[in-house]
Every structure is written in C-alpha cells, then in structure tokens.
Design a protein that fits this description.
- The protein is α/β, with parallel strands linked by helices.
- It has helices spanning 15-29, 46-52, 70-84, 107-115, 133-147, 168-176, 189-200, 227-235; strands at 2-8, 33-40, 59-64, 92-95, 120-125, 164-167, 207-212.
- A seven-stranded mixed sheet has the order 3-2-1-4-6-5-7, sandwiched between helices.
- β2, α2 (46-52) and β3 (59-64) form a beta-alpha-beta unit.
Length: 250
C-alpha cells in the first residue's frame, strides 16, 4: 500500500486538481494506494473541496479546528499511517505538498526506488534557482556552504526537501523509541524536513536520493516560506542530528 500524505492549509485552488492527478498517476502505476490529507484549520473552502472527492477517491481526511502548523500536520498523518498499515515492511508513505509545487508524477520514481531496497528515498531539487525567489536561494546556499552533508546518519545532498518516501517500518521504529508524549518533530517548515530525516535515518538500512524539478510558479497562494526563521530553525536543531553515522540500523 502506498499512503500519499498531503498537509493542507488554505489550498482550495489546487488540492482538488492535485488529488485527481494523483489518482491518475497511481491508477496507471497499478499499486494499491490511499491519500491522507490533513486539513489544518483551512478557512478558504479547502474542507468543502476535499469532501467532494471523498466518494471518488480512496481518501482519508484528518482535520484540526485550530492551526497546528506544517510539522504537526505531517506528524499526525505519519502516526495515522503507522496505525493503519497492515504490512509495515512493505507499505510506504510519500509526503508531498498541496500547492502543486511538487508533482504527483514524482511519486512513482520514489516508490520504485523504495521497492528496489531503500528504506527512505529523499527528493533533491534539480532546479533550485528557477522561480525559487531570493530567500530560498540564500537558505539553500547557506545550508550547502555551512552544513553540506553534515546530517550524520543521512548523508543526502538536499535535506531541506519534504518530498520523500518512507517505509512504514522505519516510522514505527522511530515512534517506538520516542519517550511517551514526545513529538517526533518540533521544528517548522524546511527545518522540520531536516529534523524528520534526522529522526528517521538511524532506523533505515539504506537511504537513496533522486532529483526532480519543483514548480514554484504553479503556486496560487503567497509563499509561506520565511528565510530567516528557517535558517534559525536549522541552527536550533539538536546537535545529535549532525553526529557521524553509527552502526547500521538493525
């Protein structure tokens, strides 16, 4: 089973088209799938759009009445999937954005790489400059300059990207090792993507990375990316995430 998890806040203009294209892509891929959307207190009609697709798609909608933010939205969906998945060693989760900057077509190569033996497949942006805006370019340059491949247990080239595939058993192991009541990820935005990768990587035998193009020009709403807040969030990440890789996870 492929679980496609989409965090959504005020994505009424794109979420329906995104869901329908995901259905088309995964239908042609001929794999069982379920789409899980977390509607984070949207007030622009996102909830109503999602309800219209409930009968036509294998869709689960999670909701929050108050805004909880990107990282908690993602974590709620990941926890939901770990409870629902029947075959955690075989089932996988793909996390992608609801603003159409990431295409459903990227799901197939991510899953194929996972089926080839990886436990985590991380996306890497191949066109980080085009349409990205100065803030994204600066943060990417700073990360490449000062952090590089320093994420000890996950030596990937682009740890900022949220588009990834995870084998469910990796999530189960990471959540199992958390102290009771603890969050898996506390950072927000791109920093949350780095933290999540760092938390899950020690439980993965192999991590792969594939490149794709992002389409910031397809965003219909104003970007929520905050360069300075993102960089500060990266600097506040626990030192343990940057340690050298230890023995291979069991």
């Amino acid at each position: 089973m492929i679980y496609v998890c989409v965090p959504a806040h005020n994505e009424a203009q794109t979420i329906g088209v995104l869901l329908w294209k995901t259905r088309k892509v995964l239908g042609a891929f001929e794999r069982d799938y379920r789409i899980v959307v977390h509607d984070d207190a949207s007030d622009d009609g996102t909830r109503e759009v999602l309800q219209r697709y409930r009968r036509a798609l294998p869709l689960t909608i999670l909701e929050s009445d108050r805004r909880i933010g990107y990282s908690e939205s993602v974590e709620r969906m990941l926890r939901f999937v770990t409870e629902e998945a029947s075959y955690p060693k075989r089932d996988c989760v793909v996390v992608m954005q609801g603003d159409f900057s990431e295409s459903p077509e990227h799901i197939v190569p991510l899953v194929k790489t996972l089926e080839g033996g990886a436990d985590i497949v991380a996306g890497a942006v191949s066109n980080p400059v085009e349409g990205a805006g100065w803030g994204r370019r600066v943060v990417r340059w700073l990360v490449a300059r000062f952090l590089g491949r320093a994420l000890g247990s996950a030596p990937v080239g682009d740890p900022l990207v949220g588009l990834r595939a995870y084998r469910v058993i990796v999530l189960k192991k990471a959540l199992r090792d958390l102290p009771e009541g603890s969050r898996l990820v506390r950072s927000e935005g791109w920093a949350a993507n780095v933290e999540l990768l760092g938390r899950l990587a020690p439980h993965a035998r192999r991590i792969a990375e594939i490149s794709f193009d992002v389409r910031y020009d397809l965003q219909t709403r104003r970007s929520r990316f905050r360069p300075w807040a993102t960089f500060l969030g990266l600097m506040r990440l626990p030192e343990s995430l940057w340690s050298p890789p230890g023995p291979e996870a069991a």
